[in-house]
Amino acid sequence: MNEFDLIKTYFAPLATSPDAFGLEDDVASLNPPDGRQLIITTDSLVEGVHFLSEDPLETVAQKLLRVNISDVLAKGGTPWAAVLSLTWPSGRDVRQISSFADGLKADLEHWGISLMGGDTTSTPGPLMLGFTLLAHCPQTGPIRRAGAKQGDDIWVTGTIGDGYLGLKAARGELSLSRPEDVALLAWRYRVPEIPDLSIADLISNVAHASADVSDGLVADIDHIAKASNFQAVIALDDVPFSSAAKLCLEEKKVGRLELITKGDDYQTVFTAPPEAKAAILRASLQHGLDITKIGKIQSGQGVLLQRSNGATIPIRSEGWKHF
Ligand SMILES: Nc1ncnc2c1ncn2[C@@H]1O[C@H](COP(=O)(O)OP(=O)(O)OP(=O)(O)O)[C@@H](O)[C@H]1O
Ligand SMILES: Cc1ncc(C[n+]2csc(CCOP(=O)(O)O)c2C)c(N)n1
Ligand SMILES: [Mg+2]
Ligand SMILES: [Mg+2]
Ligand SMILES: [Mg+2]
């Protein structure tokens, strides 16, 4: 199958918007929906850096979408259209593109995203995937990292640390008294859990500042603190962990500090004024969103960690850095 057959067979069916011209032209066109503002983000995945060579490509495709969708949701945006850049290793069986396309289709459909175009190349190096996601948000614009106010509560969706533990699990470096939890964690690494679409409206309606967690909970809260020129206090006892992560803590396979600093979570962390609490809990109940209050914004700089005895200590974590 040559490059053009491949695009026609696997990617053209994912171009559901007529403005993608069936992936048979030099460009696609876009008009944001009436009354909405266009937002754009891009994140790449590289074999051996973001996923393991032996990971099924169906899950790699889902991870590729989710690491991008998490940025958009955290800004109060609705995912809409996307561009895919595929750099295929010359030594990898091209038939694997079929599983990649299956994973892509599942998540594109789930999130209502049309593929608008892309690029296909080969390389003597590792598999590299670039994904650019276009989305729309209210005319008031995306919720920024800057904007947190003194007295805001800090909230986080889902649970923290499964991606980090899942990498150990996927590498065969984790054993637990419940082996099914090892398998579950490896799955979480390959297909990160991200909040439901309903988080976008909640963020738009109540958040002063917001970001997704990718580099690490502490580092990403620090981004908000820095951009907003305030200090964040995280109550360590309140950070939500999955039952598998709790088992890892009980069986001393990991420490809580590792879980909150290592990243690969893709949940949303946001700040909101205390009076928004009722609306947040209502949305959480109404949409089945899992949202936990984990801290406060106050005057000062950086991030403090509040221990069980109430004492606060500064915590510095740069999070994941490529160089
Ligand atoms: N090579 C680049 N060229 C232009 N802008 C870039 C480049 N790399 C990053 N940026 C921009 O820098 C800012 C921060 O990017 P970063 O990738 O750290 O954010 P993120 O996607 O939220 O985090 P993560 O990559 O860990 O998911 C964004 O505005 C991003 O568009
Ligand atoms: C094989 C393997 N080793 C390490 C990690 C951990 N990791 C890689 S990049 C990243 C931050 C987000 O990426 P970026 O900043 O590029 O968007 C994290 C936490 C992984 N996922 N897979
Ligand atoms: Mg990025
Ligand atoms: Mg990102
Ligand atoms: Mg981000």
- Radius of gyration, in angstroms, nearest whole number: 20 Å
Shape: globular
- Termini separation comes to 38 Å
Q: Which structural class matches the secondary elements?
A: alpha+beta
Strand content: 15-25%
Query: What share of residues is helical?
Result: 25-40%
Q: Count all strands and give the number.
A: 11
State the major sheet: 7 strands, mixed
CATH homolog superfamily of the largest domain: PurM-like C-terminal domain
Pathway: Cofactor biosynthesis; thiamine diphosphate biosynthesis; thiamine diphosphate from thiamine phosphate: step 1/1
Family: Belongs to the thiamine-monophosphate kinase family.
Keywords: ATP-binding, Kinase, Magnesium, Metal-binding, Nucleotide-binding, Thiamine biosynthesis, Transferase
GO molecular function, one term: thiamine-phosphate kinase activity
Describe the overall structure.
With 323 residues, this protein is α+β, with helices and mostly antiparallel strands. It folds into two domains: 3-18 and 35-138, PurM-like, N-terminal domain (60s Ribosomal Protein L30, Chain: A, 2-Layer Sandwich); 153-315, Phosphoribosyl-aminoimidazole Synthetase, Chain A, domain 2, CATH 3.90.650.10. Helices cover 34% and strands 24% of the residues. It contains ten helices and eleven strands. It has helices spanning 3-11, 57-74, 97-111, 162-170, 179-190, 198-206, 217-228, 243-250, 256-261, 277-287, and strands at 36-46, 78-89, 114-123, 128-138, 153-157, 209-212, 231-235, 268-272, 291-298, 303-306, 312-315. The strands form two sheets. A seven-stranded mixed β-sheet has the order 6-8-5-9-7-10-11, with helices on both faces. A four-stranded mixed β-sheet has the order 1-4-2-3. The mean pLDDT is 97. One magnesium ion (MG) binds at residues 71, 211-212, 214.
